[in-house]
Write a structure and sequence with these properties.
Elements: H1 7-22, H2 26-37, E1 65-67, E2 82-86, E3 92-94, E4 99-107, E5 110-117, E6 122-127, E7 129-131, E8 138-139, E9 144-148, E10 159-166, E11 169-171, H3 179-182
Antiparallel strand pairs: 1-2, 2-10, 3-9, 4-5, 4-8, 5-6, 6-10, 7-9, 10-11
């Protein structure tokens, strides 16, 4: 006669495999993954500082940052792996620095352009974009690579998601901009002509 095995006896080996990694504290997990996924809880950058290579904003002159960079602490954690810049649909999207287009197409229904920046291991991404370039194209700083597409509910007034990666590490794309591009122009008083 065959012995009946309880569900607990059969499932225990599988549950043990799933529960043991969960026993590691979230902080320990984040610190272990820190170099790949962002700054983490210590606030230290994942590697050397990003050179200020950008010569242009990807859209406009000084667009509003709708949502800032918020790196995830774990591979599948919550966060924002780039910045959203206010830009109405149809706005031209420019390469922030010279490079080669590594991807221009659709991902999950959104237009994406990715550019490997010349002389670095850095890669910028722009979405949602209707691309005017193709994979393999060389682009100059400031060259138009496409136009912003409508985003629906994500940014009702329209925005461009701008990302930056070094290998597998997500970085703050605003760090590519030199301080002069980050500052607003100083206010100037005009003469009153009567």
């Amino acid at each position: 006669m065959r012995e009946k095995r309880s569900v607990r006896t059969v499932l225990w080996p599988f549950l043990a495999v799933l529960l043991v990694p969960a026993a590691v504290s979230p902080l320990a997990w984040a610190e272990a993954r820190q170099p790949v996924y962002g700054t983490g809880p210590t606030g230290q950058p994942p590697g050397p500082p990003v050179p200020a290579l950008a010569r242009f904003w990807p859209v406009g002159v000084r667009p509003a940052v709708v949502r800032g960079w918020d790196p995830p602490l774990t591979p599948y954690g919550r966060g924002h792996r780039g910045v959203d810049l206010a830009a109405p649909p149809g706005s031209p999207v420019r390469a922030v620095a010279a490079g080669r287009v590594t991807f221009a197409g659709r991902v999950a229904g959104k237009g994406v352009v990715s550019i490997a920046l010349s002389g670095t291991d850095l890669r910028t991404t722009y979405e949602p974009v209707r691309a005017s370039v193709s994979k393999g194209d060389e682009v100059a700083a400031g060259e138009v690579v496409g136009t912003v597409e409508a985003t629906g509910a994500h940014c009702p007034a329209g925005c461009l998601h701008w990302g930056l990666r070094s290998g597998e590490a997500y970085l703050d794309p605003l760090s590519l901009l030199p301080p002069a591009l980050l500052r607003r122009a100083p206010s100037r008083l005009l003469p009153v002509l009567t």
